[in-house]
Specification:
Rossmann fold; 2 domains; six-stranded parallel beta sheet; three-stranded parallel beta sheet; 41% helix; binds NADP nicotinamide-adenine-dinucleotide phosphate
Length: 277
């Protein structure tokens, strides 16, 4: 089994970002809006900020109290939409319940939508047009390319249909000419679909759901899941120990898909900056 080293590929992407920034006349700028005090979100936002600093990208974190009004958030986004030094805007999810996620994500200028969650970018992805695409699934495609995993004509199964991972993942695989099946919580006999798959991407949020008996010998298994067990250990949606002797390629958790997400976010910010300026 070949381990798919997402950390190494993420470092390569960040090096490309750094090289790009060095040659750009306008320095790309990323603004992250963090609302409330969700501990996981704080960790993610700090990590994004530090990575920006490392590669020489301007980064600004705007923190708002959990009781901020929707109107205030919309005014803030409009201000960022207008700013010339900001080329990427990210609203850290999840949002407090009183805020309408759909309205807020739609308020972000689609050209600065570096998370790829705006309806216009979602529509462009659906139609196979060039777009800012969601970071995690975009990172998965890059990882597969780096390891020369054949996607054209491959049977690919995506487990999970969230707007953040599963659905864009399926469309990106389709864009690579894979034959894609999407499985979800109502799918009957998921293992039967997986057993026929050359590529399985698990984005569910259930620890160690995918077992060796589910997969085809030699298949490429990508684990997007991040789950914390009672003993504090981080595991994915794939039972790594069970699958490691049967899979042909497998991502570890941590160190697999996770590091790619931030790297692609910065890559999207460079892309947005080049397009806007
Ligand atoms: P989500 O919004 O909760 O979506 C989970 C999906 O899994 C849903 O579509 C759900 O189906 C499906 N599902 C639930 N139980 C299932 C089952 N028993 N069998 C098959 N499918 C089932 O989660 P998400 O945001 O996509 O994230 C998925 C996982 O990836 C989480 O562990 C998350 O922490 C991780 N993640 C990692 C990164 C990263 O950077 N590595 C980024 C984002 C997310 P229904 O639609 O039918 O409910």
């Amino acid at each position: 089994m070949q381990l798919l080293d997402g950390k190494k590929v993420a470092e390569k992407i960040l090096q490309e970002v750094q090289n790009d920034i060095a040659t750009m006349e306008v320095k790309p700028g990323l603004a992250v809006i963090l609302i409330g005090d969700d501990p996981a979100s704080q960790v993610y936002v700090n990590r994004k900020h530090k990575t920006c600093q490392k590669v020489g990208m301007y980064s600004e974190v705007i923190r708002k109290n959990a009781n901020v009004t929707q109107e205030e958030v919309l005014v803030l986004i409009e201000d960022l939409n207008q700013r010339k030094d900001i080329h990427g805007i990210l609203v850290q999810l999840p949002l407090p319940k009183h805020l309408d996620e759909e309205v807020i994500l739609r308020a972000v200028d689609e050209n600065k939508d570096v998370d790829g969650f705006h309806l216009i970018n979602t529509g462009k992805l659906f139609r196979g047009q060039d777009a800012l695409t969601p970071c995690t699934p975009t990172g998965v495609i890059r990882l597969l390319k780096e390891y020369d995993i054949n996607m054209q004509g491959a049977n690919a199964v995506v487990i999970g249909r969230s707007n953040i991972v599963g659905k864009p993942m399926a469309h990106l695989l389709l864009g690579q000419n894979a034959t894609v099946t999407i499985c979800h919580s109502k799918t009957k006999d998921i293992e039967k679909f997986c057993q026929k798959a050359d590529i399985v991407v698990a984005a569910v949020g259930i620890a160690q759901l995918v077992k060796a008996s589910w997969i085809k010998p030699g298949a490429c298994i990508v684990d997007v899941g991040i789950n914390r067990l009672n003993d504090g250990k981080l595991v994915g949606d794939v039972d790594f120990e069970d699958c490691k002797t049967k899979a042909g390629y497998l991502t570890p958790v941590p160190g697999g898909v996770g590091p790619l997400t931030i790297a692609v976010l910065l890559q999207n910010t460079v892309k947005a900056c080049k397009k806007i300026t």
